[in-house]
Amino acid sequence: MLTIGAFARACRLSPKALRLYDELELLRPARVDPDSGYRYYAVAQLERARLVAWLRRLGMPLAGIRAVCALEPAAAAREIRAFWARVEAETAVRRDLAGFLVDHLAAATAAPGKDTTMLELRYAAHSDRGLVRPSNQDTAYAGTRLLAVADGFGPAGAPASGAAVEALRFLDTEEVPAGNVLNLLEEAVRGATDAVRDVADPAENGTTLTALLWTGSKLALVHIGDSRAYLLRDGGLFRITHDHSVVQSLIDEGRLTPEEAGSHPQRAMLLKALTNGTPDLKLHDTHRGDRYLLCSDGLTAVVPEHRIRELLTASPEPEEAVRSLVDAANEAGGPDNVSCVVADVV
C-alpha cells in the first residue's frame, strides 16, 4: 500500500486532486484508515491514476474521463480519438476567428493611400436533375458577391432549398464591408432558416446550405450539411468545409475509412441541416488565380476528388467547368441531383 503522498508522486497527481477524485468516485483509495481518515492506495491503481492524469492534461472533462475509464482499452482509444477530433474542430473555428480579428484590426490601422489590387469574381452555376431522381431538389446560385448551393430533402425538399438561397440573395446587391461580414452572413442565415421553416415542415424536410460571400478581397463561408466547398490553388485541390454527416463523424472517430464511407448504408444521413443545427462560419483570404467550387453531394458521391481536380484544372472558364463536372456525375450514373458553382478570383 502507498500513502497518498507517495501515490501522488508516482502518478503525477496532487494529493488535492486525489481527494477530489475520491469524492467524485473517479479514483477511490484502496483503504481509508478508520481512525485518522488517511487514504492508502494499491500499486495496481497507478495505471488508472496515470490515465486520469494524462486525460486531464489533454483537457478532457471529468465526466468524459469517468466514461473512458469504464471502457475496455480499444473502446477507450476510440472515445479519446473522438474527443480529440471535436477539440480540433472547435480549435479550427477559434483559429479562423482569431485570424479574422488580426486581419481586421491590422487593416484598420494600415496607412491610408496604400495601393491595393482590385479583385472580382468570374462565376457560373449549373444544377441538373441527374439520371435517376424524378425531380431536382437542389438549388444553385452565382452572382457578383454571392455563391450558394443548397440540397433539399424530404417531400418539400425543392421549396426548402429554394427558400434558403432566395433568402440570401439580397446579399448580392449590397456592398459588404469586410469588417462585419461574418455577422452579416450569420444574420442572413437566420433569415434563411426562418424562410425554410415557412415553406416546409422541418420534421420531414430540410436543406443543406453552403455559401460564399465576396467582400472584394475575402470570402466569407457559411456551411451546414454535406454539400461542399473546395479551393483550387496552385494546382492543388483543398476541401474547405467539413461534412456534418454520420459517415464523416465515423471517419473522424477512426471507425471508418474514407474509402469505406462511399458504400456505408448511412452515407446520406445528416447530423445537421439548416433548420436543426448551427452552421460553420469562416473567413478565407483569396489570391488572384484561386478557383472555388461549391457542389452538392450528387457530385462528390460519384466523382472522386482527383477527377474533380482534373476537370477544374482543365476547364479555362467557370461555365465550362460546371458543365464538365455535372456531365462527369451523370456519366458515373447520375444517381442524385447534382449542382455546381465555380468562381474564379480575377
Secondary structure: elements and pairs:
Elements: E1 2-3, H1 4-11, H2 15-23, E2 31-32, E3 39-41, H3 46-58, H4 62-69, H5 73-108, E4 121-128, E5 138-142, E6 146-153, H6 157-168, H7 181-199, E7 206-207, E8 209-214, E9 218-224, E10 228-233, E11 236-239, H8 246-252, H9 258-261, E12 280-285, E13 291-295, H10 297-300, H11 305-314, H12 318-331, E14 338-345
Antiparallel strand pairs: 1-3, 2-3, 4-14, 5-6, 6-7, 6-8, 8-9, 9-12, 10-11, 10-13, 13-14
Helix pairs in contact: 6-7, 11-12
Structure write-up:
The chain has 346 residues and is of the alpha+beta class. Helix content is 42%, strand content 21%. It has twelve helices and 14 strands. The protein has helices at 4-11, 15-23, 46-58, 62-69, 73-108, 157-168, 181-199, 246-252, 258-261, 297-300, 305-314, 318-331, and strands at residues 2-3, 31-32, 39-41, 121-128, 138-142, 146-153, 206-207, 209-214, 218-224, 228-233, 236-239, 280-285, 291-295, 338-345. Strands 5, 6, 7, 8, 9 and 12 form a six-stranded antiparallel β-sheet that branches. A hairpin with a 3-residue loop joins strand 8 (209-214) and strand 9. The protein is elongated and about 80 Å long. The model has no long low-confidence stretch (mean pLDDT 89).
